[in-house]
Amino acid sequence: MALLPILEYPDARLKKVATPVLAFDDSLKKLVSDMAETMYKAPGIGLAATQVDVHKRVIVIDVSQDKSDLKVIINPQIVAASGEAVVEEGCLSVPDIYDKVRRAEKVTLKAQDTTGAFFTLDADGLLAVCIQHEMDHLQGKVFVEHLSSLKQMRVKSKLKKRARELVTN
Ligand code: GNR
Ligand code: NI
Questions:
Q1: How confident is the model at residue 86 (pLDDT cuts 50, 70, 90)?
Q2: Any idea which ligand is nearest the CA of 132?
Q3: What does the pLDDT average to over 93-119?
Q4: CATH of the domain spanning 12-168, picked from 3.40.50.970, 3.20.130.10, 3.90.45.10, 3.40.50.1400
């Protein structure tokens, strides 16, 4: 078990596109276990491998209240999406920035588990939002890129200001 450092926007490595997992081996199981530990510690409800600088299609999610429902999602494919939901999102890679993003309300996912077995997952509510947020990370996209360019400029200047204050203080 190990905590992994989380990349912060606008780090260029967050823009990398993840590649499919081909080997369902012990190193994959270790990555998943370290990602889950890192997500719970943060704390967050989801984490994509991209955020820990591993550019493979691996996601962990737990939207339960008591951290009792870890979902491990490898090589996800959305096979159906419907409806619209606007939910306020945050991201461990964009600390303390929250804004509303429009997503599909429901998604059906085909994915693999750590053994390589395929499963289908029907999601709505926060789980559906989180799945779409994490799948964006795997494509090199952070939620702020869904916002207007004015809002993106504000986010960047806010993060720069904070970085300056960290140096000064
Ligand atoms: O912890 C997280 N909370 C969250 C809230 C609303 C929509 C998406 C998320 S995901 C985020 C963790 C994270 O950054 N995952 O990539
Ligand atoms: Ni995120």
A1: very high
A2: 1
A3: 98
A4: 3.90.45.10
SS3 percent helix, strand, coil of the chain, rounded to 5, is 35, 30, 35
- Peptide bond before 5: cis, by omega within 30 degrees of 0? no
CA of 130 to the centre of ligand 1 (A): 6
Q: Whose CA is nearest to atom 7 of ligand 1?
A: 89
Domains of the chain: which residue ranges?
Answer: 12-168
User: DSSP letters along 120-132, please?
Assistant: EEEEEHHHHHHHH
Give the distance (Å) from ligand 2 centre to CA of residue 56.
15
Would you say the pTM of this structure is higher than 0.90? yes
134 catalytic residue (yes or no): yes
Question: In whole numbers, what is the pLDDT of the chain averaged over residues?
Answer: 97
Question: With bands split at pLDDT 50, 70 and 90, how would you rate the model's confidence at 1?
Answer: confident
